Amino acid sequence: KKKDEALFDEALELIKKKNALLIAHYYTSETMQRLCEAAGGFIGDSLEMARVGRDSDKDLLLVAGVRFMGETAKILSPDKTVIMPELKAECSLDLCCDVEDLKKIKALHPEATVVAYANTSAQVKAQADWIVTSSLAVELGKYLTKQGKPILWVPDRHLGSYIAAQSDCEIYCWPGRCIVHDSFEENALDFVKKENPDAKILVHPEAPAAVVAKADYVGSTSQILNYAKNSDCKEFIIGTEKHIFYKLMQACPDKKFIEAPVVSTSGHCISCANCPWMGMNTLESLIRALNDPEPHSVHVDESVRLGALKPLDRMLSFSA
Ligand code: 13P
Ligand code: SF4
């Protein structure tokens, strides 16, 4: 405990000394989110993280999240130094979407508008017409449907089917999945709902369609948080990564939050949804990054960056 407090103080001191802006995602540990609050940093969903990094006047951005979040910050702010506690913090969606495979699929659907989820590499983004985060996906789906063009969507199959169901668009969907959200299961959820009949179910759209179908509300991490804050309801079952509970309980201390159950491949109920890559953002790795930035710096090849910037800018203008 003493050691943790000393590390926390050391990290806080370093952030101030280096004049860095710490930008953290809700799925990082409670310690990381507390540090972010103490350092005057920003905690948000992936769209907000991108916007805040771009608009900051600080020269050093410290992104506590997964790699695509650091890459997005660098693409939008090439003149800033963007560092991450752990460059190996991946995302299963990013990992399952190979750029060469995408090029082949694109060639099969030349008429389609390529829409890539933000949870992809810079190379994949550079192949896309549009980037979206979960908070914008349905809105963009509806917008593109009005234009009458089919969508080639990569890489999350569940978010893809949710966009299709909500916007009625023609969509070719990549078969990727988030290992965390894919584990939510509808029968186990029914069981928890039976025990908490008054609770509303709030779910991230990366969850399977059968789980999303049972939700009272579907949205990004920030949208789930806002829904819980503004609702008259006092109890919620939460279908997203467990570290969002820190902000949920801070924002709504008088409300009850229950974890939607996660089921392992062997069919056993395990208690929580935990993203292992987000967990790589520790105080130790953050201190290492601030003390020795170069091995923790995000670099994006300039031609790839320019390719990825176009659809990212389009997304940010669409959401403005
Ligand atoms: P949000 O954009 O909702 O924060 O989602 C990011 C993410 O990685 C969800 O798993
Ligand atoms: Fe990627 Fe899923 Fe982790 Fe989000 S929770 S960063 S989508 S693996």
Automatic annotation (TrEMBL):
Sorted UniProt keywords: 4Fe-4S, Iron, Iron-sulfur, Metal-binding, Pyridine nucleotide biosynthesis, Transferase
Reaction catalyzed: iminosuccinate + dihydroxyacetone phosphate = quinolinate + phosphate + 2 H2O + H(+)
Record pathway: Cofactor biosynthesis; NAD(+) biosynthesis; quinolinate from iminoaspartate: step 1/1
Organism expressing this protein natively: Succinivibrio dextrinosolvens DSM 3072
Keyword Acyltransferase attributed: no
Name of one Pfam family that matches: NadA
Family matches, as Gene3D superfamilies: NadA-like
The enzyme's E.C. designation: 2.5.1.72
Molecular function terms from GO: 4 iron, 4 sulfur cluster binding; metal ion binding; quinolinate synthetase A activity
Entry function: Catalyzes the condensation of iminoaspartate with dihydroxyacetone phosphate to form quinolinate.
Catalytic EC class: transferase
Name the record gives this protein: Quinolinate synthase
Transmembrane segments: none
One GO BP: 'de novo' NAD+ biosynthetic process from L-aspartate
UniProt cofactor(s): [4Fe-4S] cluster
GO cellular component assignments: cytosol
